[in-house]
Amino acid sequence: MSDNSELIEFLIGPGVDPAESAQYIQSLHQAPVESIEMILRSLINNLEPIVADKPGLIDGLLRLLQSNLLRQPSEEAETLDSDLIVALYENLPKELGTRFLLLHALAIARGPEHLQALAELLVEDAPQNWIQVGLVLSPLFQHAGWDVDSMFPRVLDAIQNLAVAGGILDLANHLFRSGQTKRHRCVDRSDDLIPLLGALVAQLEQVEKNPKAFGDTPEQVNQVLSEAIALIVSVCDALALIGVDRAIPQLKLAMELSHRRIQTEAAGALARLEQEEGIDRLIELAAEPSARLRVLAYAEELGLEDKIDDQYQTAASRAESELALWLAQPGQMAVPPSRIELLDHRLQFWPGFDDPIDCFLFRFDYHFAQGDFSNLGIVGPMVHAFSADITHLPVEEAYAAFAGWQAEHEDIYVVGTEHWNAAQRRVADVSVKELEEKGYEAVTPEFLGFFLGEHAVVALASKDGAIGVCVYDGLELVWYPTSGRMRPLTAQDVWQIYMGRKILRTFNT
């Protein structure tokens, strides 16, 4: 299919067979670069009707372009025509959410002309989302040997754009720290970075004093806070790596902010600049779980390990820090816990690992104005905590819940009641009858669970006046009352406990 208009007609024209169109698009995941270029030309030449009638097609094709290039050997990806990427990027509507993927494609290709084009677009027409900018630049962190001079110093003109500045500074810091550049590429921009740091510190001071001035909802305030923190971290690191003593007063002001991550970065920068005040604060921050891993990394980099108390360098202390950082992410609790306590540490076999792995089980607590919140979290095979309250579970059952949650296999799945066939319904009816004979009442199946050739019914039920969830396979019965709990276990949670019991029992006996 060599004609561009024919391709678009095949994809979106009247009377098109959706199945054939989808099959063709799927085949492009493994197509050579020439086919991708044909798609790009087709889009450029037919952009107006596609934007008007089928904007979703653009999203799909841009994602396809990204995934295709990620599969290509680097020497093939580098043959991609950068002019086509630029032409399409410049003509797509700026509000298109996937437009930034074209910039990511330039970074994946990593040829000199791709990087020159990327630098120019980041300066002149960059995404206004700092997370998207981070994704765009990620291939340049993952690979070495690309032509740094193709991007620098031109891309440094993008530092004026706060959405882009953090990503560019992080890249320059990475290149210098990893030895890919002998001279930090922001040395000549240090006079711009000092006032930027001052402005960011002032902004965060205002956020701390009056967060409502920066948004009507907690989500809006957190977005402002996240953007400012990400940028201030990058600026502190750059100034320290460059060795800008003139930044010391601003770094000291940053270290006085209440946010632990900023305190850590400012203290680390001051320590790198051989300021005792920064070294002392860095050592103190090792006691803070949410700051500990970063503190230890700086201490190792700066030769300060012997100044950190041994209790903060143990495997358990590092695991505690991992959980605190995970909980502090915006998608989780957004702030570190008020308290973390190690409940259990054991070496055990775990699904997905060939050798026994250290498993750490923690209890964490939050003290909010509207009430307290507690739960259990795991570190080792993963870092995770549930929405449902599992603080009442015995340690072995808590491990089982996490093991069952993580279990993935083509022979592990569930079938909801609405999809049961006649045979599955008969199996469930037998299980329900047996549960009733065991004293359970109002047994209401939720789904059938299939686990490596075995099956069990998962049902809501009541017993002795308590409502709960049970899993029954004809031999083994798991029952958890849920009455009176603020965040009770769901049917899915109890199914995961059932699976996890079997998995860990098999692996560790």
Describe this structure in words.
This protein has 509 residues and is of the alpha+beta class. Among the domains are: 186-313, no CATH class; 333-385, no CATH class; 412-507, no CATH class. Helix content is 53%, strand content 14%. Strand 1 and strand 2 (357-368) form a beta hairpin. The longest helix is centred in the middle third of the chain and has 25 residues, at 218-242. It is globular, with a radius of gyration of 28 Å. This is HEAT repeat protein. InterPro entries: ARM-like (IPR011989), ARM-type_fold (IPR016024). It comes from Rosistilla carotiformis.
Topology record:
Elements: H1 4-12, H2 18-27, H3 33-45, H4 47-53, H5 55-71, H6 74-77, H7 82-91, H8 101-109, H9 112-124, H10 130-142, H11 162-177, H12 190-209, H13 218-242, H14 248-255, H15 260-272, H16 276-285, H17 289-302, H18 315-327, E1 339-348, E2 357-368, E3 371-379, E4 383-385, H19 395-406, E5 412-416, H20 422-437, E6 441-451, E7 454-463, E8 466-472, E9 477-481, H21 491-507
Antiparallel strand pairs: 1-2, 2-3, 3-4, 5-6, 6-7, 7-8, 8-9
Helix pairs in contact: 1-3, 3-5, 3-7, 4-5, 5-8, 7-8, 8-9, 8-10, 10-11, 11-13, 12-13, 12-14, 13-15, 14-15, 15-16, 15-17, 17-18, 19-21
